[in-house]
Amino acid sequence: MTDRLRSLQDLQALQRELKLRQQAEEERREREAALARLRDREARLFELTVGPVTVLPAANRVLLHTGRPEPEPRQRELDEQMAWRQALSDDFDVDSLLETDETLSFRRPEIAQESVRKLRRGHWALQGQIDLHGLRRDQAREALGQFIHDSARRGLRCVRVVHGKGNGSPGREPVLKARVRRWLVQKQEVLAFVQARASDGGSGALIVLLQAP
């Protein structure tokens, strides 16, 4: 009788243990299901907010990743342009500061006289020119300043400036000839200039030597 009672008690304990395990398993499944529903809701939060979402088909394209363009020194260029525009004055007194002669030649103090003679003889090949014929004074001043500035930046050493002989001007006086000389001596890029040879324009043009880059 005692053995039967003990076996019954063991069986009841086993049943209680199995029931507890079953309850624990059901609670675990419910927690996992609730967690899965929460994750699904979070994943579909945008869709639940704005409505049904249709996935677009993948575009048949190749995405090209190009490098960023180099920054352009726009402000520096504007500053340089403003500087050369302000530098060219019609009232600049050439004779009081620089040596000139009757043939309108000019050289800076650091430039040897031999360089001027070479320039006059055509020692350097002409690499560029500007023709100021037909331009008004302000137009010619701006065009000349820009030309000298650009030529120096490009590394040109010898250029020609055609200002004309004044044959078509009132009184047949060369309007730009003296002004071009004043403007050129104010440009730091200009080392020297001479009147062109007859084959290069004679008294209607100047041959200009520019600084080396």
UniProtKB/TrEMBL annotation:
Keywords: Coiled coil. SMART domains: SMR. Pfam families: Smr (PF01713). Signal peptide: none annotated. Residues 8-44 form a coiled coil. Residues 130-211 form the Smr domain. Gene3D superfamilies: 3.30.1370.110. This is Smr/MutS family protein. It comes from Roseateles amylovorans. The lineage of its organism: Bacteria, Pseudomonadati, Pseudomonadota, Betaproteobacteria, Burkholderiales.
